[in-house]
Amino acid sequence: MSALPRAHELGLIGCHVCGLVCRESGDLHDAACPRCGAPLHRRKHGSYMRTWALLIAAFIFYIPANFLPIMRTVSLGDVDDNTILSGIIELWVKGSPDLAIIVFTASIVVPMLKFLAMGLLLVTSHRRTGWGQRQRAKLYRLVEFIGYWSMLDVFVVALLTALVQFGVFSLVAPLPGVVFFGLTVVLTMLASMSFDPRFIWDSRETDD
Fold this sequence. Notes:
about 210 residues, mainly alpha, two-stranded antiparallel sheet, 7 helices
């Protein structure tokens, strides 16, 4: 990778908003993208601190999201509060293993993998290591792609709340857990958006 020319060596800079490749013209202090008007800079300012802050906040919200109930089901006087994990177990026991696996993947596996992946990207980029740069770039794109699917639990609760309303016979209501889970998903998406993937390609070897 060190034999390949870098963008700044060719006098090029990419807009982080629309992706347009622009020609550098002297001082970048007041430079703007000719297509979208966004300020041009080689790397996002404060990207590390902002991404770490969002990721840590998302992890803090993820703890009550798993321990607090996300949904209350009332049917013929029977009140049942479900957390994410108890809802998955109930789906499995009541004969819907496929749906239980989907919810488990979207609500447990995906958020944990996003925390690990973003933490790996932040640590390796900050240390400016040249290890697996292509693989880390693909990992970042994967994190961005799967981020929106983590909202599955929120969508399920919203749909059930809107559809399963039969007066005194049945009632579905959202509980605080779904708010914390929604905040977790939003903050992890913001964390991936605030991270500048161009940091992946910075390494001590290429600088030398």
